[in-house]
Amino acid sequence: MPVKVGDPAPDFQVKDDTGKMRTLNEFRGKKVVLYFYPKDNTPGCTKEACSFRDGYNALQEAGIVVLGVSFDSSESHQKFKDKHKLPFILLSDEKKEVAEAYGASGGLLGSFTAKRYTYLIDENGKIVHVFTKVDVKNHAEEVMQAFSKHSGK
What we know:
Blueprint: E1 13-16, E2 21-23, E3 31-36, H1 43-54, H2 56-61, E4 64-70, H3 74-84, E5 89-92, H4 97-102, E6 105-107, E7 110-114, E8 118-121, E9 127-131, H5 139-151
Parallel strand pairs: 3-4, 4-5
Antiparallel strand pairs: 1-2, 1-5, 3-8, 6-7, 8-9
């Protein structure tokens, strides 16, 4: 069942782009953007990742951690990061467990990809906003606006 606004964000343990095991709980106390995308190095996914890259400084200044998630391997993520100079963590959900927990499994290519969904998680680990429709070119800006509305700033 998909998570919704107000739900606790499900924790997970998966490898990042360097092969290091990561959990959501390690970011407790920080705002987190958990964005699912279908596939490394595809046109829409590249535009979305580059939107976060280009808005990364503003996101960091606002205390927001960016975590990208797809079913690609850590090695694929590392190449994708290097090619596009992505400064944030990419998580490898090869078993599709994270996407399943969030209701983001089964994208355009069925069970082979994740849906392009984004979850905004507050400092206490609660879902505060869910994007099921994403403007890939301006997604970082959409995220900043949504976090601003949530925090009342």
